[in-house]
Amino acid sequence: MAEPRLFQLSMSPHVTSPLNTRRVMLDVVTALLPALAGAIWFFGFVDSLLPVLVSVVTAVAAEYFCLRIMKRPVNAALDGSAIVTGLLLAYNLPPGVPWWLPVIGSGFAIVVAKQAFGGLGHNMINPALLGRAFLMASFPVLMTSGWQAPFEWSAPESHFETSGIPVENLQAIPDADAISGATPLRVMKDSFTMERHRGNAVRAQLASEGTYLNLFLGRRGGCIGETSGLLLLLGAIYLVVRGVLELRLPLSYLGSVALFGWIIGGPGLLQGDPLFSVLAGGVILGGFFMVTDMVTTPVTPWGKILFGFLAGFITIVIRRWGGYPEGCSYSILIMNLATPLLDRFTRPRILGEVGKHA
Amino acid sequence: MSRWKDLTNGFYTENPIFRITLGMCPFLALSTSVQNAVGMGSAATFVLIWSNVAISALRNFIPDKIRIPCYIVFIATFVSLVDMVMAAFMPPLHKALGIYIPLIVVNCIILGRAEAFANKNTVMSSFLDGIGMGVGFTLAMLLMASIREILGNGTWYGINILGHAYTSQPVLLAILPPGAFILMGFVLGVFAIIDRRKERAA
């Protein structure tokens, strides 16, 4: 039996971590699955699962061909990052889009936003969100209309409003037909241009407990994967337990959305509704799965907090005064571009380094 | 032989857009349709040829210290000519090109050729260089505009070539400003690949 050596001589790095790309990505995919199940439950197989599958397959295939053309190791296409991109892109599409829309969006996300910049770890902006921005600019009609009211398979006859307002509360709003078929944030945005008493009635219903519950459970119109806050939170908790998700980014982002939603999100100063701001739109999906993209967001603790804070501010500004009802994706894209700057400004002092005025 | 080289230099080897990457502003902004590309290309070519000739003819009389203002005066003269002629005879095109016609005055290709070529060469060489650079610019505009118009509108020179199914739902981004930058990146990439192949073969 050989005597154990006192010193193990080896090159650095000496500290290794069980976390690797594939494990992290598979955890993220797992965490996204409850929302997919919810989408199938609310919108049916054809309208939700089909775009998701098409998007994921396209993303992986595009990644494979890009790596092939660039003569890089092709097994990197199977590290799971393309699957996550494909999933997140599809989660940002309205249910029931034509099959070629996720193909184009997913292909663009991988080829232009990711591989053209050098592949995983080198892309400046979140590929899935850039793919969505590309689709928004190219096919605005397909991307912003045709919102489906969700149904539940146990009781197909039961009916929900796309706005998330409980059906029995609709009579409190004068001329309620005019707001049917619109997402909660669209209704909120329209309420600012309605006559005063109607706008107030609409906002009172949007800020009611019944609406909060519907929004949280996913009984509302919206993109495939963004509707159910509950199922997204389940995924997020799984990620936290697995040690993949660090809570600084999501909490500062969601907190900032709530804060600015309260301060400037309403008709006047301090008249907004913080809870509605967080529950409506894609903020929960964005906050837990897109703001937290490791490649395109800051690595320093204060950088992360600033990133979330500013992104939340931009989200609310776009919601209140921008051209679109939801600003989540654009706010994250804008902040992605500011990431190197944030990292530089918030660089922590190295242990032992002496400050300028010390 | 060298005359021939003066003429063909701008076509490919020193193509103002894809090689020297000058004049990006009108190139990116106006390559939205082939019609615009033809209009902008011919206007710029006209100015390029005659400013080259004028500057080269007077190169020995222009004091060195104030040469740039002198170039601008020549160029502005020809641009005003183009502007007025276009406004009089082609009002729709004039309207489509808008501010970019007066902006030819500060076009980097024209100033660049004046400073780098016409200033040092004979009138005949400068004339040929003007033609070559102008044609090179127009060809680049045509290439980019063809890609963008076909992708973003389904048409080429206003003729529907991809069918109604496509034109009702085109990739709008291609004719929007970000599309210009993205496609420019891809075209430059293709040129880089062609060059590398050539180098390897040589």
Task: Describe this structure as you would to a colleague.
- The complex is a heterodimer of chains A (358) and B (202).
- Chain A is mostly helical.
- Chain A folds into two domains: 21-144, no CATH class; 167-343, no CATH class.
- In chain A, 56% of the residues lie in helices and 0% in strands.
- In chain A, helix 3 (81-91) packs parallel to helix 5, helix 11 (248-263) runs parallel beside helix 14 (301-321) and helix 14 (301-321) runs antiparallel to helix 15.
- Chain B has 202 residues and is mainly α.
- Chain B has one domain (2-201).
- Chain B is 69% helix and 2% strand.
- Chain B is built from nine helices and two strands.
- Chain B has a two-stranded antiparallel sheet with strand order 1-2.
- In chain B, a hairpin with a 2-residue loop joins strand 1 and strand 2 (159-160).
- Chain B is globular, with a radius of gyration of 18 Å.
- The mean pLDDT of chain B is 91.
- At the A-B interface, helix 5 of A face helix 9 of B.
